[in-house]
Amino acid sequence: MKKANRLTEKRSERKKVFLRSGAYLIVTDAEKTEKNYFEGIKNIIPDSLKNDLQIKIYSNKALSKIIDFAAEERNKDERFRDIWLVFDRDEVKNFDELIEEAKESKMNVGWSNPCFEIWLMSYFKNLENISTSKKCCDTFEKVFQDNTGKKYKKSEEEIYNILCEKGNENKAIERSREKYHQVRKEYSKPSKMIGCTTVYKLVEELKKKIELKK
């Protein structure tokens, strides 16, 4: 009986890890795909911890101000110790500078080059060297339909659940990490790292913190 109690206590402690490390604030400039994806992760978190993962939408077209927006949100709540900005290279001209500025402001960046769909694609296959968002989305639409039998919509609210059910999240992290470090050997600037994403770092971190293991 004592052993069972100790196991129960350990599980309880592991669930509290998320709280002890401070709350997470994810700021993205996408009102659909990225938001729905991370809301999917939030839905898996135990109810008692849901408030420790907040997702904010930065709606201003000037992406350069996203750091200021995140800083303001951080100042509103001292629990926000882990700040993650999630955005794509897409048409952002100061992409590299923005990432460096975020780091200087003690914020993390889950960037994708060229777009967020490159990360979603990793649930099903190795990442490709796709340089434009349009081609990336078109390619992912085909991959998504081939693997799920459904048509991909950016507004799909169940995107996270579908990806986990039909794809492989651990493989996605592995593929993205491998691609990132492979390309990193040749290019140091994120804008040059075509077909790469660092979203895997955020997802892996969240999985470890809240033990999102099947």
Element layout with pairings:
Blueprint: H1 2-20, E1 23-28, H2 33-44, E2 53-57, H3 66-76, E3 80-88, H4 95-104, E4 108-113, H5 117-121, H6 133-148, H7 159-166, H8 169-184, E5 196-197, H9 199-210
Parallel strand pairs: 1-2, 1-3, 3-4
Antiparallel strand pairs: 4-5
Describe what this molecule looks like in 3D:
This protein is α/β, with parallel strands linked by helices. 51% of the residues lie in helices and 13% in strands. It is built from nine helices and five strands. The protein has helices at residues 2-20, 33-44, 66-76, 95-104, 117-121, 133-148, 159-166, 169-184, 199-210; strands at 23-28, 53-57, 80-88, 108-113, 196-197. The protein has a five-stranded mixed β-sheet, with helices on both faces. Strand 1 (23-28), helix 2 (33-44) and strand 2 (53-57) form a beta-alpha-beta unit.
In short:
With 214 residues, the chain is α/β, with parallel strands linked by helices. The chain has helices at 2-20, 33-44, 66-76, 95-104, 117-121, 133-148, 159-166, 169-184, 199-210; strands at residues 23-28, 53-57, 80-88, 108-113, 196-197. The chain has a 5-stranded mixed β-sheet, with helices on both faces.
| Largest sheet data | 5 strands, mixed
**Widest sheet: strand ordering:** 2-1-3-4-5
Beta-strand fraction estimate: 5-15%
| Range of helix content | 40-55%
* Average pLDDT metric: 88
Structural class: alpha/beta
Order of helices and strands: HEHEHEHEHHHHEH
Report the uncertain regions.
1-20
- Strand tally, please? 5
Radius of gyration: 18 Å
Q: What is the end-to-end distance?
A: 26 Å
Count helical runs.
Answer: 9
